[in-house]
Amino acid sequence: MNVLVVGSGGREHALAWKLRQSPRTDKLLIAPGNPGTATLGQNVAVAADDVGGLVAVAQEARVDLVVIGPEAALEAGLADALATVGIRCFGPTKAAARIESSKVWSKQLMQRVGIPTARFRSFGDGAAAHAFLRSEPWEQWRVIKLDGLAAGKGVVVAQSAEELHAAIDSFGSTGMPLILEEPLSGEELSLLALCDGVKAVPLLPAQDHKRLLDGDQGPNTGGMGAYAPLPQVDETLVGSLQGRIFEPVLRALAAEGTPLVGVLYAGLMLTPTGVQVLEFNARFGDPETQALLPLLDGDLLEIMLACVEGRLQADMVRWYAGAALGVVLAAAGYPEAPRKGDRIDLPAAVGDGLIFQGGTALAGEGLVTAGGRVLTVVGQAPTLAEAAERAYALAQQVAFAGKQMRSDIGQRGLTVEHH
Ligand SMILES: Nc1ncnc2c1ncn2[C@@H]1O[C@H](COP(=O)(O)OP(=O)(O)O)[C@@H](O)[C@H]1O
Ligand SMILES: [Mg+2]
Q1: Which of 43, 112, 383, 398 could be disulfide-bonded to 33 (CB atoms 3.0-4.6 Å)?
Q2: What dihedral do alpha carbons 16, 20, 22, 25 form, nearest 10°?
Q3: What is the CA radius of gyration of the chain?
Q4: What pTM did the predictor assign?
Q5: Same domain for 206 and 72?
Q6: How far, in Å, is the centroid of ligand 2 from the Cα of 208?
């Protein structure tokens, strides 16, 4: 089978790595890919949101399955365009991907089907949001969200009325609808489920680290590291979410005539009164995927085919024992203005660790930085503590000027594992 992976980050390198292991994978194409994916298959210089270009590549190379990484490709309607030419795609249609691309639509769906989520109001513009707050205590509505895709820059949890009103002005100026939401508190986790339109099979729970600096300080990023599973989260709780959260959403989407095939990713918060859904995404997470796929004991291509053919079974998704932990190495200046062109020195041998490339490029013989999140270094081991040790030992052996990384990835899980 010929497979095309769409995207160019660490997530796509991990997807290509796992798909390459399938005995059924013949030709593996990655568009546009990165120097890491080029070692596993053939990179094709077409952007992830160039729908016409990607369809042409898929047709020319007789691709049997397209696997979509980034949300931009979903919103551009890549899955829809592939369907019209009869090419199978792991990744939802534009309509099903609204669960991620419109937070207003997503919140309304959650409310309709009874998914636990923070109380909210939606507004067509900033003026309406300001007007609403005139008769409401701002503290109870201090989470503001932009309706559309914003690459992690569309949410502010305001600490003062001034900050809230300033965020309303700034988000309002985009012309997009807004949401004001009640603030919740508790530990966050990512639970991704593979979906065949009807059935959802959750992966292991994972945890991302969104802030740039240790102790969850500093600016928001695309994610500075992730690990799985989470020793602090009860397995039976995770199991119960299949019926409480994922399947009701799949039923609602199918009832609208837009079934979701691909990944449904729930951003969850464990609040004192129970699990709440902060948001849904319609794709694999980056960097969660780099920690999850090494733990998957199974043939990812077979699993994805089962999803697109509507025959997914829970027993297809098995896991190796132990834990995996990924540390993101980011470029100087990330997230504001990542510097490009710094030479990267990789260790000659990675031992039993893994290095997934993201913002990298080839310059002559060598590798240089070419984006914000340069690499994800993953350690896998029987315990989370050993996985962290391995990941950090390997991360120390990667050198480039201005390298940024957090030193506390996995901290919440490690605290529990030690007790
Ligand atoms: N209701 C809420 N209460 C407290 N924090 C929230 C709430 N909603 C979102 N957040 C915080 O903001 C982050 C981003 O929100 P999210 O809805 O996941 O949007 P996105 O990932 O699209 O930026 C969350 O990871 C969480 O830390
Ligand atoms: Mg999120």
Answers
A1: 43
A2: 100
A3: 21
A4: 0.97
A5: no
A6: 9
